[in-house]
Please model this.
Amino acid sequence: MPQKETEQVKFWRGEFGDTYVDRNTTTSNHIGMRLSMWVKIFRFMAGDMPKSILEVGPNIGLNIRAMKMLCDAEFFAVEPNAKARKVLIEENVLPKENLQNGFAGDFKLPDTPVDLAFTSGVLIHIHPDDLLKACTNIHKSSGKYIVCYEYFSDKPEMIDYRGHGDKLFKRDFGSFWLENFPDLKCLGYGFEWKAMTGMDNATWWVFEKK
Ligand SMILES: C[S@@+](CC[C@H](N)C(=O)[O-])C[C@H]1O[C@@H](n2cnc3c(N)ncnc32)[C@H](O)[C@@H]1O
Model:
């Protein structure tokens, strides 16, 4: 059953999402920070690198731009914000036919599962009631690896997001994946400490289907 468009998705499709695109930049510094994170993540896939990769919620594609320097995979993406999709196409981040207008709770799953499906700063913007459906779609989309890079909190909590309520939810996303999808094993995890990496004090997890 497809999920109804949520309040959170409408928020990202609208003015807030457009302004986020305007604020986001693809300087070599920003891409370099992603590059160094993906070097760490890809270590867990050494010898069996993904040949097809789906990012759910790429915005202007900082991850994909960096990952392209590290592997030869074919990239796919699902992004609800039209302005972000326009940048992705105009700047040749990925081919038009590989980019969907959709959101984690409702998109066309790939006919052949990709080797790696991932989110980066996206599960945090999904209401806890909708999270399982979103993760189920991501899980079905991947034949091998799942990665998420998200804000961590020991207990689920909602925090204010630039003055907006109900738009940012932190939790232990790693445990959420393992508890809900017993076929996953955790290959590794790490913390991107802002003081050393420039990233946003968030945690990544790498999972493989057993
Ligand atoms: C904080 S940005 C992160 C962008 C990118 N992943 C990165 O790491 O730079 C969140 C992105 O996810 C998109 N988004 C928000 N809710 C989503 C959902 N339910 N499914 C897919 N994408 C979503 C937004 O439009 C936005 O592009």
